[in-house]
Amino acid sequence: MDTSTRLLMFLDVVERGSFAKAAQHRNIDRSVISKQISKLEEELSVRLLNRTTRSFSLTAAGAEMVKKAQQLRKLLSETQLLAENYHTEPKGLLRITSSTIIGRRYVQPVVNEFQKRFPQVEIELRLEDRLVDIVGEGYDLAFRVGEPKDSSLIARKIARNRLVILATSQFLTTFGVPKSMADLSSLPAASYASEGLRFTGINYLDEHNEPQEVAIKSVFRSNDGELLMMKVLSDTAFCTVPAFLVDQEVINGQLTPLLTDVKLTDYSALYAVYPHRDLPVRTRLFFDAMREHIGKDTPIWEKNIPNFDTLYGFKPTIKAPLF
């Protein structure tokens, strides 16, 4: 192993916060990481880390080496990109991260077709509902709901993300059909909740187009969208969810959209996020394939809700005639 490789390994340890996490990411034993960092310190004749049994801290020299390692990573990435763009046939490893349900339902089908067209491209798809450090963890492309707050990343909108209120017919028989948004506040609801986000109400526009919010009575919370749908299908709760969670449940009559005359505000859109503007050929082609699969105007998932383009106050854009 050469010095540059050890420098990148050192950067992994620092950015991930521990030897164990860096080893897990690289799929090697923790002792290998520790030994290579020690060899790096020997090669450079300087201590990079102050280690204890449970943690470490950077020395002054270590902090400087982190900067150099980041520059090295960027240089290697740019060099690889330059070489790859001379290939007529895309090849190499494409690392993608996505939220779980988006990955299973919408990214994986694209992966399958993409590798039929470009068999020399290897794809690693990691499904994570946490906020992934795209640069630090070495991903080429991420699919996220919501524009990233990190201004150093490039984000391109893939599709809108409209909401729908759903319940089963048995639920409505048991609890009654809501006539207004206020009626929903007393009905049992299933809602999304994670470490950084909790869905506590439904945002909508009133008859004066003024933003309003009605609180919900959440009796079940989960960070998994499919579990929320399973709860609603048990006839014990309603839910307000992004349309991409809906499969065939509305078409086959299992779920019914509620209060469809209310003007719901859109949820955060689906974005493709990547670290550099100059995408490798394989990354750019996969992005194009993903956008084509989902649909440039109407997202593929909205077709699972009949007449969705007339529900919840939505007004589709009318394109002007070409002549």
Structure write-up:
It is a single chain. The protein has nine helices and 15 strands. With 323 residues, it is an alpha/beta fold. It folds into three domains: 70 residues, Winged helix-like DNA-binding domain superfamily/Winged helix DNA-binding domain (Arc Repressor Mutant, subunit A), CATH 1.10.10; 96 residues, Periplasmic binding protein-like II (D-Maltodextrin-Binding Protein, domain 2), CATH 3.40.190; 103 residues, Periplasmic binding protein-like II (D-Maltodextrin-Binding Protein, domain 2, 3-Layer(aba) Sandwich). Strands 4-3-5-15-6 form a five-stranded mixed beta sheet, covered by helices on one side. The chain has a five-stranded mixed beta sheet with strand order 11-8-12-7-13. The chain has a three-stranded antiparallel beta sheet with strand order 10-9-14. Helix 5 links the parallel strand 3 and strand 4. Helix 1 packs across helix 2, helix 1 packs across helix 3 and helix 5 packs across helix 9. It is elongated.
CATH topology of the largest domain: D-Maltodextrin-Binding Protein, domain 2
Question: What structural class should be given to the helix and strand makeup?
Answer: alpha/beta
Give the terminus-to-terminus CA distance: 65 Å
Which second-level CATH architecture of the largest domain applies?
3-Layer(aba) Sandwich
| Percent of residues in helices | 25-40%
- pLDDT averaged over residues: 88
* Overall shape: elongated
Main pleated sheet: 5 strands, mixed
* CATH level-4 homologous superfamily of the largest domain: Periplasmic binding protein-like II
CATH class of the largest domain: Alpha Beta
Note the run of SSEs as H and E: HHHEEHEHEEEEHHEEEEHEEEEH
- Rg, Cα atoms, Å: 24 Å
Which band does the percent of strand residues land in? 15-25%
Counting DSSP H or I runs of 4 or more residues, the number of helices is: 9
Low-pLDDT runs of 5+ residues are: 318-323
Order of neighbouring strands in the sheet with most strands: 4-3-5-15-6
Strand tally is 15
Overall structural domain count? 3
